[in-house]
Amino acid sequence: DFEGKGGKDPSLGLLITVSTKLIRLVDDSVIYANEFKYRSAERKLSYWLQDNAQPFMKELEQAYQSLSEKIVEELFLIYDLP
Q: How far apart (Å, rounded) are the C-alpha atoms in residues 81 and 74?
């Protein structure tokens, strides 16, 4: 999703929300659930679309990297799995 204000060349920020669940297969119980969010800086629509939307694609790659790092860190380095 994009967040921002309207207008001819609105300022928009990329917002991605990822829901995660870890389910125990034996009894289908949820042993972990969390939501992770990524928000980019707001930029003009014309910026996001320049060079065949390369800034947008680069931001998506950065978002995926950031979100995956947060999920791995929380699930495997912070959260004590039963």
A: 11
Of 66, 63, 68, the C-alpha closest to 20 is 68
DSSP secondary structure letters along 23-76: EETTTTEEEEEEEEEEEPPPEEHHHHHHHHHHHHHHHHHHHHHHHHHHHHIIII
The model's pTM: 0.79
Distance, CA of 16 to CA of 29 (rounded, Å): 26
Across the chain, mean pLDDT equals 90
Tens-digit pLDDT profile for residues 52-67: 999 999 999 999 999 9
Residue 17: which H helix or E strand, with range? Answer: strand 11-24
Residue 13 three-state SS: strand
Distances (CA, A) of 49 to 20, 30, 63, 70: 30, 40, 17, 28
